[in-house]
Backbone:
């Protein structure tokens, strides 16, 4: 009798285990079918789940579910997005040809696409001034802080405690003592690039500051990969700065830093500065719970120049893949030329296809990359992807040292995309980024000339050169490419 009961219990446990395995497999497979947008990924996961019972389902729930986007949506789901009352009428897409030469009139289609993607107005009356390296950018930014009378907002990824960082801390502290409302937001990971961190210096100057999603804390383990990569400074709601430049002495080449980094930043004046401020106030509200409103932060803005501009906000929350869609829209509409500068070139398959199709349509596609970067394995992974664009006519150029951190895209001599985002998985899917799209032939020509000065001294990459590498080099680069989603 006891033995019979034992056999019965054993059978019950076996049936329960089989039932649980079937249930887990069904749930995991159903989730993959409903949520995986790439059919190949969905098929691969469903097959793995059913061919490796229980283990396949568990691995899917651990690695296959996109918790980054889900976590971002949950974190920011109740965020009150603030949009200041417009003081200037927007430029509608059909009005764009009046502002551009004949060879750029077709870009009204791009304005329509980006407007539908980012849901922000395209604003006339702006001026965009390029600032090369920290030698031009930092003095202009410090001057804006020193002249501020009502408010200063600053968000950055890296804020080093070096000579440059301390100059900013002192300027921000002095502004606060003048009665200026000062807010500084630094990425939680970005504070760790120097030791001691800049936080204690800001505290000593009485500057109100916060860390965006501090990593390695129990409350933020699921969001440790979500970093704010934005670089925005706004003074009195009237003068803005944005681009790809962090606050660190390495960008000031005249100081002859040990590891110099070239970069380009931009001074922005005009109505679009309000959109820079909106992005900062949303992030500050999310991080601290403090709502920044009123004329001190959002005064009326005046026309400052001929540039049409619009902010392109991107992140793993509801702004997911808006930068990617903007890139794809620009590449699909380009007719004559596309010029790209980025320090990290790890495009996803959709971007690679768009680049190749543009080249095959007769568009001249030039991609300018640094020959040396701060993360060698990222360069290896990037190099493994170069043949995919070279074989269809895109041209890749490698600029000589020092490392060039510049980010820029020019289309048809009339459209400019500038800002913080790289052409890699982190910027396309994980980081919170901010870019500006600008329509203006004069600005595009000025940046085209700067691009050409870089390209002339750069070295062209050929398909024969890449294919002729040694087997160990190709294997190393190919293995690094497998890590692209994490780089």
Residues:
């Amino acid at each position: 009798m006891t033995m019979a009961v034992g056999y019965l219990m054993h059978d019950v446990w076996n049936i329960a285990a089989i039932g649980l395995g079937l249930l887990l497999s069904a749930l995991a497979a159903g989730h993959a079918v409903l949520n995986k947008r790439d059919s190949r990924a969905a098929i691969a996961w469903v097959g793995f789940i059913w061919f490796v019972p229980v283990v396949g389902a568990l691995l899917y729930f651990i690695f296959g579910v996109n918790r980054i986007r889900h976590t971002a949506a949950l974190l920011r789901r109740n965020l009150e997005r603030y949009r200041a009352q417009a003081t200037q009428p927007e430029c509608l897409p059909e009005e764009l040809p009046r502002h551009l030469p004949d060879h750029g009139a077709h870009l009204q289609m791009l304005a329509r696409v980006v407007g539908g993607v980012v849901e922000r107005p395209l604003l006339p009356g702006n001026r965009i001034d390029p600032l090369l390296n920290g030698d031009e950018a930092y003095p202009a930014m410090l001057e804006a802080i020193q002249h501020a009378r009502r408010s200063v907002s600053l968000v950055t990824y890296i804020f080093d405690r070096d000579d440059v960082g301390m100059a900013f801390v002192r300027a921000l502290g002095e502004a606060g003592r003048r009665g200026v409302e000062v807010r500084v937001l630094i990425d939680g990971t970005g504070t760790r690039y120097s030791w001691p961190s800049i936080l204690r210096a800001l505290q000593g100057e009485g500057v109100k500051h916060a860390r965006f999603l501090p990593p390695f804390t129990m409350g933020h383990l699921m969001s440790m990969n979500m970093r704010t990569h934005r670089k925005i400074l706004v003074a009195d709601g009237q003068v803005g700065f944005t681009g790809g430049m962090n606050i660190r002495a390495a960008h000031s080449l005249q100081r002859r830093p040990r590891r110099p980094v070239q970069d380009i930043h931009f001074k922005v004046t005009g109505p679009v500065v309000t959109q820079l401020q909106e992005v900062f106030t949303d992030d500050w509200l999310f991080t601290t719970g403090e709502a920044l409103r009123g004329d001190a932060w959002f005064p009326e803005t005046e026309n400052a120049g001929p540039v049409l501009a619009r902010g392109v906000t991107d992140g793993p929350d509801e702004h997911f893949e808006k930068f990617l869609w903007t890139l794809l829209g620009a590449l699909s509409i380009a007719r004559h030329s596309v010029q790209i500068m980025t320090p990290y070139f790890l495009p996803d398959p959709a971007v690679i296809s768009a680049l190749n199709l543009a080249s095959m349509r007769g568009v001249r596609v030039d991609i300018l990359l640094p020959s040396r970067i701060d993360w060698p394995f990222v360069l290896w992974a990037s190099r493994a992807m170069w043949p995919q664009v070279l074989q269809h006519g895109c041209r890749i150029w490698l600029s000589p040292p020092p490392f060039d951190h510049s980010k820029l895209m020019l289309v048809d001599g009339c459209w400019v995309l500038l800002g913080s985002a790289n052409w890699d998985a982190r910027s396309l899917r994980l980081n919170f980024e901010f870019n500006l799209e600008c329509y203006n032939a004069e600005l595009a020509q000025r940046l085209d000339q700067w691009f050409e000065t870089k390209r002339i001294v750069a070295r062209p990459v050929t398909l024969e050169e890449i294919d002729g590498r040694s087997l160990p080099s190709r294997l190393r680069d190919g293995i690094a490419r497998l890590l692209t989603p994490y780089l």
Notes: The two ends are 62 Å apart (CA to CA). The CA atoms of residues 339 and 451 lie 8 Å apart.
